[in-house]
Hints:
Layout: H1 25-40, H2 51-65, H3 70-77, H4 81-88, H5 96-106, H6 110-121
Helix pairs in contact: 2-6, 3-4, 3-5
Amino acid sequence: MTPAGAMHVAGDRRNAQPDSDYCPLDSHRLRITMDLLAQRRGKQIHPVAGPERAFGKALRGVREARGISQEDLALEAGFDRTFISLLERGLRSPTIRTLVRLAEALKVQPSHIVRRMERVSGGRET
């Protein structure tokens, strides 16, 4: 029985017993969404060839030749470390601006990275 003037909402269980399995609608939606996201989350597909992969190999080669970690390169160039990782794995394509910033951080000309990329994609990896 509800007090006078109060509306009774069907399914309103604000005063539910502590041992009940009541779950507010929003929490239930959130739980379903999180479960679906967890199911969708899988391994990223790494390209085996293509310009992104070639650029990634070239960038990694130049970075390792300079003895610089992904984290140090990211800090020097003003990027997040995960972005450098995505570039090196061929999962992201750099813009010209990104290429220039990376080259400056590595203390090489942007053309050096591009030439190395061309060698990698041409089968003559250095």
